[in-house]
Amino acid sequence: SEKSKVTSNLNTLILVFNGQRKFSFYIKVRTALNIEARTIHDELSNLFGDEAPSYRTVARWAQWFRPGREEIEDEERSRRPVTESTLENIEEIRSIVSDDSHVTIAELQEHTGLSYGTLHAILSDHLELGKITARYIPKQLMDYQRSERVQICKENLSRFEEGRWCLCDVVTGDESWFFRQ
Q1: Strand, coil or helix: what is 129?
Q2: Last-in-domain residue among 107, 123, 138
Q3: Are residues 147 and 128 in the same domain?
Q4: Does 115 lie in the same domain as 130?
Q5: Do the Cβ atoms of 137 and 130 come closer than 8 Å?
Q6: Which regions of the chain does DSSP assign to beta strands (E)?
Q7: Which of 45, 76, 79, 111 is most deeply buried (CB count within 10 A of its CB)?
Q8: CA angle in degrees (0–180, nearest 5) for 88-90-91
Q9: pLDDT tens per residue across span 73-118
């Protein structure tokens, strides 16, 4: 019908503003026309598919606009930026942990000012370290670490074959962690 054609053209005009899609502007206009958040979300989903904001986002914006909010941009947030896992921070953490593998996250927080979550992400995801017996150990062994462990096992085997090591000194299990100072 003529009305749906006009609505479709209006939707396209509203959503493209300075070359960018302004979903919040569209939500503001549709909310001012007393259109429900579910309907607005369905319209956006039909037009933009996966690029459309979630229903939760649409409902939140509609709730903000109902009392007369004018701004269509997000308000400034006082929390830390999400991008604290910078290369500089990763390298700083790598340096600290390589100097002292017994360092705690609390000590790292004190030294760097980074949040617990950011430090945990840097240690586990970026540096691939895990805390074992209060010490950070690489999740994946480096080549030199593998060869060092093979050498230690060969030494232990030769001690056993020479009779300098008894079977009662051997402990078995699913995993073995050897620390050599």
Answers
A1: strand
A2: 138
A3: no
A4: yes
A5: yes
A6: 16-17, 20-21, 129-132, 135-138
A7: 45
A8: 65
A9: 555 555 555 567 788 889 999 999 988 888 888 899 888 888 888 8
